[in-house]
Amino acid sequence: MKNILLAIFCVLTLGVNAQSVDTAKKKLADTLKKDLFTAPDTVKRLQIHPLYLLPPIGLIAYGALSFYVTPVRNFDYYIHGDIQRTTPNFNTKAESYFLFAPIAMVYGLNLVGIEGKNRFIDRTALLGLSGGILGLTEFSLKHATHRLRPNGTDYYSFPSGHTGAAFLAAEFLAQEYSDKSVVYSIVGYTFAVTTGVFRMANRDHWFSDVVAGAGFGILSTKAAYLIYPYIRNALTHTDKQGRKAMVMPTYQDGAPGLSFAMQL
Question: Which residues pair with 245 in a beta bridge?
Fold first, then answer.
C-alpha cells in the first residue's frame, strides 16, 4: 500500500512540475509577444526640469576647462601619477563588459516581465538614437582636441568613449526603471563609475577625459528621450481622416530597413 501511495505521489509531483514548466513557458512567450510585437500609438514626451541638465553640463564643462585652466590639467597629472605609484601593473578589460551591463539589465528585466517605460521597438530606437548622438559628438571631439593618451598610444584621449557609453547605458537604465526603484539607477551608475575608474587605472584616459565622457553619455541619453517622442509621434500618427500611419524598423535577410504602413 505504501508503495502504491508513493507511486501516486511521484506521478502527481511530475504532473505538477510539468504543468509549472508549461505555465512558465507560456508566460515567457506571452511576455515576449507583448514586448516585441506591440507598441503604443504615441510615446509620452519627457518632462524634465532644466536643473536636471546641470550635472552632465557641469561634467562636460570641467573636462573642457582642462584645456585652458592649469590647475585642472595639473590634477590630471596628479591622478595619473598616483595610479602609476600605487597600481603600476594594473591591467584589465573588464570595463569593456561593464559598460553593457545596464543595457543587458533593461532587456533582461523586460524579458522576465518587469516592464520598463517603453516596449522593445521604442526603447531600442531610443538606445540607437542615444548612441548616435554620443558617437557623433565624441568622434568629432577626439579629432578636434587631439589629446595624447596617458599611455602614449594615440591622440584620441578626450573624451573617454568607454566612459561615455557606460554612462549612456546607466542613464538608459535609469530612464526606463527609476520610477520603479532607485536601486536600478544605483546599480547602473555603479557600473558606469567603475568603467571610468578602470579606464584611468589602465592609463587609457586622464581624469578630465573620464569626467567629460560621463557628461556626454548622460546628456546624450537625456537628449534622445527628449527628441525621440517628437520623431516617433510624427511618424506614427492618425491623420485628419482618422487613418493611422506607422513607420517601423525592419531586419530581413541581414539587411536593416524601414517599413511604412497606412490604414486605408
Answer: 237, 262
